[in-house]
Write a structure and sequence with these properties.
With 355 residues, the protein is α+β, with helices and mostly antiparallel strands. Helices cover 23% and strands 39% of the residues. Strands 13, 14, 15, 16, 17, 19, 20, 21, 22 and 23 form a 10-stranded mixed β-sheet that branches. Strands 3-4-9-5-8-7 form a 6-stranded mixed β-barrel. Strands 2-11-10-24-25-12 form a 6-stranded antiparallel β-sheet, with no helix packed on it. A hairpin with a 4-residue loop joins strand 10 and strand 11. The longest helix has 13 residues, at 15-27.
């Protein structure tokens, strides 16, 4: 915060300066005049100058109007910690919770570590609950960009866990998701707490952040942008960064990394239309060779990763950090539990026994 204050006193001249100040203000719940700051950031965006301005304008779209109307009270207020059942959906194999939204429900929400720092709901459900859209914006998914609304959920209850003023986005979910759930719980809503995805006992556990070690092998983590969880991994004995995504039904690797690892290989590329959120961009996948893979203290030979171009075209540009690997549910289901202490930037993994 001290650095943000100094930068603001000197006078920000670029969109990245404004973005750094805004990040500090939001992190410390200093929401006075945040709307004005977002407008100043928008005026400083110059897409003609290239990255990161090419993506910054989109990322703050509608947020000035949203914070003008949302007021200065903190968002994502964790009132009660505790636990809730977290079973798996039969058709897609993703973890979900039953949640009460403003006292109504229960509604099924996918527990998505690759989501955002808020709850995502279908437009129809938002209208049913009576959630007011405070501003219009957009959401960027693996299939492109889609219009979205910015809103606040007054109360979110999941088992023993209770939160007030949860950040919320409303947009049209992909058809494949609308058939099995009512929305998405972006686990970034707990970004000041400790979260355990207890896969063995099918529970979501939220605790206060602490210095106490959790069960399993410890690893450093980087909490990026809207609480994406980046962790170190090794592929073919090379160090890489991976993003943990409990909302993904596959494990993947960036095509740029594949070209580095297998420069002579001819990789078959396939389309993957309708794979996720957004419109206008059709993700591409590669059938990749099996690799030697190591993460969280476990090594695996001949591990299968699908090449996925969104790791190069979406994640890198929009997060400002290159995730070479996406760790989805095929790997997470091999774990007893996955714990992340967002505030401490640490993760722990407790593995199931191998045969």
């Amino acid at each position: 915060m001290e650095l943000a204050n100094r930068l603001e006193k000197i006078g920000p001249t670029a969109s990245t300066h404004h973005n750094a100040i805004l990040a500090a203000r939001l992190e410390t719940d200093d929401l006075a005049k945040v709307g004005e700051r977002f407008r100043a950031a928008g005026r400083a965006v110059k897409p003609a100058e290239g990255y990161p301005d090419t993506v910054l304008g989109e990322s703050i779209e509608g947020l000035a109007d949203f914070y003008d109307r949302a007021g200065v009270k903190p968002t994502n207020q964790l009132v009660d910690t505790g636990a809730a059942p977290m079973p798996f959906m039969a058709l897609v194999g993703l973890p979900f919770v039953e949640a009460y939204l403003n006292g109504k429900g229960p509604y099924r929400l996918i527990v998505d570590t690759g989501g955002s720092n808020g709850v995502s709901l279908t437009d129809d459900l938002a209208k049913e609950i009576g959630i007011e859209t405070l501003a219009s914006g957009s959401v960027r998914g693996v299939s492109g960009k889609a219009p979205a609304g910015h809103a606040i959920l007054s109360e979110l209850t999941i088992g023993d866990i209770r939160m007030r003023r949860a950040l919320t986005r409303t947009f049209e979910m992909p058809v494949v998701l609308r058939g099995v759930c009512d929305g998405i719980l972006g686990t970034g809503v707990f970004d000041r707490a400790r979260m355990t995805l207890d896969f063995q006992n099918e529970r979501l556990v939220i605790e206060k952040s602490s210095d106490r070690a959790a069960a399993g092998a410890a690893s450093r983590a980087w909490i990026v942008e809207d609480a994406k969880i980046f962790v170190p991994v090794r592929v073919q004995d090379q160090d890489m960064l991976a993003v943990v995504d409990s909302g993904a039904t596959t494990c993947a690797i960036a095509p740029s990394a594949l070209k580095t690892l297998f420069p002579e290989a001819k990789l078959l590329e396939l389309g993957a239309a309708g794979m996720g959120v957004g419109e206008g961009d059709a993700p591409r996948i590669n059938l990749a060779p099996s690799v030697k893979f190591a993460a969280f203290g476990r090594e695996m030979e001949n591990y299968s990763l699908v090449g996925l171009d969104m790791l190069d075209t979406v994640f890198g540009p929009h997060l400002g950090a290159q995730a070479n690997v996406l760790l989805g549910m095929p790997l997470l289901r091999q774990m007893k539990s996955f714990t992340v202490d967002f505030a401490a930037c640490r993760v722990w993994v407790e593995w199931l026994a191998t045969e």
